Amino acid sequence: MSTAVEVDDLRFAHTGADFPALERVSFRVSAGESVALLGPSGAGKTTLLALLDGRLQGWSGRVSVLGAPLDPDRPPPSARRPDTGFVFQEFALVERSSVLRNVLNGRLGRMSPLRALLGSPTKHDLEIARTALADCGIADLAERRVDSLSGGQRQRVAIARCLAQEPRLILADEPVSNLDPAHACEILALLTGAARTRGATALFSSHQPDLARRFAQRIIGMRDGRIVFDVPTSELNDDATAELYREVGPIPGIGLRAVS
Amino acid sequence: MAFRGFGGIATSGLIAAAILWSFATTDVEFSRLLSAGPRIADFFGRMFPPDPTVMAEIKKGSAETLRIAILGTLGAVILSVPLGILASETMVSPAVFRPIRTLLAFIRAIPLILVAMLMVGAVGLGPLPGIIAVAFHATGMLAKFYAEAIDGVSRAPIAALESAGAGPLVRLRYAIWPQMAPVVARDTIFRFELNLRESLILGIVGAGGIGFYIQTYVRSFQYDKAASVTIAVVVMVIAIEAINVALRRRFT
Ligand SMILES: Nc1ncnc2c1ncn2[C@@H]1O[C@H](COP(=O)(O)OP(=O)(O)OP(=O)(O)O)[C@@H](O)[C@H]1O
Ligand SMILES: [Mg+2]
């Protein structure tokens, strides 16, 4: 089976941060797999996903995405970017534009620059956008402005935009963090289902171990910028997740310490 | 409070020194102020009643001022779009936006009336130097406003379009422009209001508009006519402000 993501000994620190956000990170994801990233706040999930999307530079190690190595010092060429789709934690939609316009924005990298600038999508582009809307169950919202939508509806628009891009790798950063349990299930089913029918690979982060179990074939646990486990879903045990989310213990030199 | 601690005492001292210095070195004679009363009364007396026969001049002058403001604003918008982009940290690198911002600050520092005088010297009397002067002068502020509008938008949608493979200009059009459009509309209307107010006086230096008549009538001691034109100017300023307040409320 071919490899969608391959990461080897990755290390990255945000500018100005005095400790790395990612350290000694190595894993691989096969093409067509659905993989969940679990880990507490600050574990480095968003950082890792953004880096795989080619939006962070200045890291060290080896990273290759969809068979092409990423350059640690410059963004990937724009021709390669549409192949990797991203669902942002806070949606990143253009609030004052319509739902259809936002979904068409996902196609901008697939059009010639001139066509993109002139804003004249082809019939094909429109068809793909409408299909993405229908797949996400929001065909009737196409003409609505995004700032008039609910959180759950926005989440669907964000996913539809990503699908309209026709990515071969879908990176989704906490795609269900703003939803109630029923909607969270529905959206994750939608995302992983759409990836499967399109033959795409999905890597999504989450704070909810039970949802990750349900929708991923493999689960990677992260804490403090490191991978602490990487197991097939069937082998994930409750102790490992409990350990992952355990409270941070007393930090030497700061505040109260447990008296032994 | 603004004036507290040592910094406050120093600031107060500086202000007091500046006032004393101004009195000491300026030819402020209270006797002249006292004797001015009757003369001002005489001046106002000659302004009343305002002469209503200058209606035609008022109409012609205000129409020309309006045209100067409209075309001057148009010119400023055309100059400010590229300059605003080049002055924004979202679109270009510091090596580009720093010198452009300095240039804009320099333009803002030159008073409109000075630009107008230079333009009258360069292209002759009439509304044309007024239009050029307004366009130039207004660009200093408008391009800065446009740059701030670009830099003030939410970053996330820009990153999303970058991730989808859209280039910088495409991102400007689909991620930045929809967010900044209402701000640009408000800023442009605001600058148009300023342009209209400021171009009322351009006629004094021969750069066209209603100011020409005020200057002509005052110089020829026809204070009753000057009074009519002045009233027309005041009415115009109030009307512009009222219209703009109503317009701007629509872009929030
Ligand atoms: N732009 C930044 N500049 C400096 N430090 C950053 C920046 N973004 C993230 N960090 C730091 O990097 C670490 C990892 O952050 P990241 O956002 O990747 O965590 P996360 O796992 O996505 O957390 P969450 O579950 O809260 O979204 C944190 O310590 C965070 O403070
Ligand atoms: Mg995150």
Automatic annotation (TrEMBL), chain B:
<keyword id="KW-0812">Transmembrane</keyword>
<feature type="transmembrane region" description="Helical">
    <location>
        <begin position="68"/>
        <end position="87"/>
    </location>
</feature>
<dbReference type="GO" id="GO:0005886">
    <property type="term" value="C:plasma membrane"/>
</dbReference>
<dbReference type="InterPro" id="IPR000515">
    <property type="entry name" value="MetI-like"/>
</dbReference>
<dbReference type="GO" id="GO:0015416">
    <property type="term" value="F:ABC-type phosphonate transporter activity"/>
</dbReference>
<feature type="transmembrane region" description="Helical">
    <location>
        <begin position="196"/>
        <end position="214"/>
    </location>
</feature>
<keyword id="KW-1133">Transmembrane helix</keyword>
<keyword id="KW-1003">Cell membrane</keyword>
<keyword id="KW-0813">Transport</keyword>
<feature type="transmembrane region" description="Helical">
    <location>
        <begin position="6"/>
        <end position="24"/>
    </location>
</feature>
<feature type="transmembrane region" description="Helical">
    <location>
        <begin position="226"/>
        <end position="247"/>
    </location>
</feature>
<protein>
    <submittedName>
        <fullName>Membrane channel protein of Pn transporter</fullName>
    </submittedName>
</protein>
<comment type="similarity">
    <text>Belongs to the binding-protein-dependent transport system permease family.</text>
</comment>
<dbReference type="Pfam" id="PF00528">
    <property type="entry name" value="BPD_transp_1"/>
</dbReference>
<feature type="domain" description="ABC transmembrane type-1">
    <location>
        <begin position="62"/>
        <end position="244"/>
    </location>
</feature>
<dbReference type="InterPro" id="IPR005769">
    <property type="entry name" value="PhnE/PtxC"/>
</dbReference>
<feature type="transmembrane region" description="Helical">
    <location>
        <begin position="107"/>
        <end position="136"/>
    </location>
</feature>
<dbReference type="InterPro" id="IPR035906">
    <property type="entry name" value="MetI-like_sf"/>
</dbReference>
<keyword id="KW-0472">Membrane</keyword>
